[in-house]
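Lecture 7 notes: from sequence to structure.

We start with a single chain of 551 residues. Read the sequence below before looking at the structure.
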Amino acid sequence: MHRTPRLILVDPSGARQELAVRKLPFRIGRQAGNELTLRDNRISRQQAQIVFEDGRFLLVDAQSRHGTRVNGEKVERHELKPKDTIDFGVPDSFRIVYAGEEASLDEIIERVETAASADTPSRDLYHLGVLLDVARALHSSLSLEDVLGSVVDAAVRVTHTERGVLVMLNSSGEFAATVARDAHRTTIEPKSVEISQSVLRQVAASRRELIVTDMGDETQWQAQASVVRLQIHSVVALPLERMRMADSLDTTSAGQQAELLGVLYLDSHMPAAAFSDLDRAVLRSLAIEASTVIENARLFTAARQMERMNHELEIACDLQQQLLPKSFPQAAHFQVAGWNLACLSVGGDYFDVLELPGEKHAFVVADVAGKGIAAALLASMLQGIVATASGFDLDPAKVAMRINRYLYERSGIERYATVFLSSLDKEGNFEYVNAGHVPPLVRTATGQVYPLTSESFPLGMFDFAEFHISKVKLSPGDIVLIYTDGFTEAANPEGEFFGEPRLRDLLKGDPGKNLDELLAKIQAVVREFTRGASQSDDMTLLVIHYRGAGS
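Now the structure, written as tokens:
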């Protein structure tokens, strides 16, 4: 007769529940009456079923709407293997992990107790084998909460103690009770549990198990206040350790001391029977397995958090890209093109082109100090402030002063932004405020290149900062290149910066037939220079080609 297979049901929130397949066929779907009913309208009423044929458990799709998948592959019939992951073709829904035909923890513990009561020469060896079964069962669990409770329950029942406490090291390096259970598998409030700190300190220092069957016979423990107060007669304490991994090989490094995760502590008011060497070996095996499960569960949780964070970063990246201009204002007297690349998922650079009253246009490039989410949030806020201010007929200096005051009052001195604010009219009058930004470059129609220098502090750095307007007269054919220092500080594998001189020389050459060609040329030259080296700053370009009032 076949063993009862077990499933681990994972709901959309990530919570897990163990199920036994006791009736065959085992029907799965959203319709009431199935052996497993899944409350998701996207899942078919009769989605799939588990059947037993020729000594094998098979998953059979019931011609479902979105199909049934095992390990990402759509299947019609599939022989189930332990750790197979089943989903139903829709995102953010239920998943099932096939745990195989292993015995449940209750069944294993029952075998332990039965073996312990048998007076045979092989009792100890059988006891060891069954406890290793316990360890393997715990190792296959996916829920950290279930694992911790199972470890304590198993240890209490195997050692015949009265209570067990799983004590973990917190981030401050202090012991904190995490799970506490009694011999009846009843949860005890961890904060209310008193345990011997002397025992914990000795186990943590020695990294060896401590087994005292009768503390009344041990002089060392008779003077311990907690032992006397709690009237403890027997104690079992096992270190839970995470073995260090070698840097280059995927093996356990035995030459280094293991990292202590915590202590599995068990005690009783009654003296315990003597522990054989084999008993001690069994307990050590259980502690090692429990430590491995706890660490794997931690890694699984960390991976889930990282996956969630990456998903949120993708959303943030999409939103930031959507805030950049998708198209530019159409005007006969100028052409404009822009490009942005964040060195991380999101960045602190942005550019914008805005229409102003009086047939003028504003051109903005900003570089917020820092990188990542914090810089991206400030850049988005800055973009909104500039866009709002552009609706009023204010000159760039007044806009810069208002933004500077706003940022200074609402962010620390480490949060500032270099900004180039400018405006252009049909006659080629180019007015600008350079607030600590790298000087943009102007290429004249004759091929000469000159910078638009900086005379002011970055925005948000000082409340007393003053900002002044500078003016240049553009001639037809002139090109203005506004960029962030991510270009000039782009580094090759040898650590050499691209630098402004290379950018000047590039502009002096043929700019191409249009701005798209010029942008592509700049990107290609910088890419060739860096040769695939990772960069530490965002890159932004905004290029303006003035055609003339009569164009």
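Residues 277-323 form the longest helix (47 residues). Keep this in mind for problem set 3.
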